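Course exercise 7: structure representation. Students receive a sequence record and must write out the corresponding structure in token form. The form below is the worked example handed out in class, using Leucine-rich repeat-containing N-terminal plant-type domain-containing protein (269 residues). Read each field label carefully; the graders check that inputs and outputs are placed in the correct fields and that the protein name is recorded exactly as given.

STUDENT ID: A-19
EXERCISE PROTEIN: Leucine-rich repeat-containing N-terminal plant-type domain-containing protein
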Amino acid sequence: MGKQATIFLIFFYLMKINLASAVASPLNSSTDEHSLLAIKAHITFDPNNILASNWSLGTDFCTWIGVTCSRRRPRVTVLNLFNMSLQGTIAKEIGNLSFLTYLGISNNSFKGVIPDEIGNLRRLRRVKMSYNQLSGEIPRLSFGFLTNLEYLSIQGNHLTGTIPWNIFNISSLQAIGFTGNQLSGTLVTLPNDICYHLSKLEGLYLSNNQLSGDIPTSLFACSQLNILPLSYNNFTGAIPIQMGNFSQLQELYLGSNKLSGENNYFYKS
Ligand SMILES: *[C@@H]1O[C@H](CO)[C@@H](O)[C@H](O)[C@H]1NC(C)=O
Ligand SMILES: *[C@@H]1O[C@H](CO)[C@@H](O)[C@H](O)[C@H]1NC(C)=O
Ligand SMILES: *[C@@H]1O[C@H](CO)[C@@H](O)[C@H](O)[C@H]1NC(C)=O
Ligand SMILES: *[C@@H]1O[C@H](CO)[C@@H](O)[C@H](O)[C@H]1NC(C)=O
Ligand SMILES: *[C@@H]1O[C@H](CO)[C@@H](O)[C@H](O)[C@H]1NC(C)=O
Ligand SMILES: *[C@@H]1O[C@H](CO)[C@@H](O)[C@H](O)[C@H]1NC(C)=O
Ligand SMILES: *[C@@H]1O[C@H](CO)[C@@H](O)[C@H](O)[C@H]1NC(C)=O
Ligand SMILES: *[C@@H]1O[C@H](CO)[C@@H](O)[C@H](O)[C@H]1NC(C)=O
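STUDENT ANSWER:
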């Protein structure tokens, strides 16, 4: 074998190692620690000094306030920062907490956008980001990857744009909460049937937005749906007749919309 070929082979071998590590790039417990510290670094105000004093490098991050690790390995499964009066943005590095099943940051003052990187967290079951000041659009694609998601609540923020259709593809979802944002667009132009994949959906909270167009009749085919707040939007048209046959529904809120037409089928026995 000539010198050139040998050099080429060595080069190729190094390339392969490089590629392999780039592709696999295993996220490990030190990545989790790095991610938590990045999250802390994006918090600009922590009036009760909760993270400032507790989340300190060199200590076991599994003991940090709001952090729970897996019993089997030092990987973060729960991040719960509920009601800590925190201000700041959500660090992209959150997407590296690859064992996360529960993300709770409700009732703080997080602002800015929801990072797309959340879509990397395929084990997520519960996402609670209500009552913050999050703005921008709901990440278009990311949430569609969260195929284990059961509970998604982003109520009381400043989100704009339309509801990404692929959220309605997540068949594990039991509750979707978007009440109290500035979401617009219609639900009827969404392709096919909202309920087709959502056989477990029990609550769809959409009140206090700027949603418009008809209330899709297909909604009333969600067999488990029992709470459907749609009030304070710009929905128009008639109240769908299918609603009258809807046995599961216990709470339906339609006030303050622009609905019209007959609705006497409610009174049929
Ligand atoms: C963890 O992953 C990082 C980045 O991929 C790497 O640099 C580090 O060596 C890994 N640590 C361990 C203990 O495997
Ligand atoms: C952080 O707080 C928890 C719970 O109060 C405590 O168990 C832990 O030792 C604290 N860690 C540090 C580094 O202060
Ligand atoms: C949230 O925090 C505030 C004070 O910052 C406290 O008054 C309130 O009780 C807390 N709520 C819950 C549910 O812990
Ligand atoms: C973690 O996330 C950041 C930002 O999303 C990314 O740049 C970085 O490569 C990720 N991986 C590790 C091992 O930190
Ligand atoms: C949210 O935080 C505010 C201000 O700290 C507090 O007054 C309120 O009780 C909290 N809400 C809940 C549900 O804990
Ligand atoms: C939703 O699911 C259907 C059927 O499984 C698939 O054809 C479609 O591409 C999915 N849409 C999105 C946006 O993921
Ligand atoms: C909703 O209705 C209000 C009042 O008619 C109107 O000012 C607003 O532009 C509408 N918004 C949308 C998104 O249709
Ligand atoms: C409601 O149910 C009755 C009896 O099961 C059926 O005849 C009727 O077609 C249904 N109406 C609608 C709008 O689904």
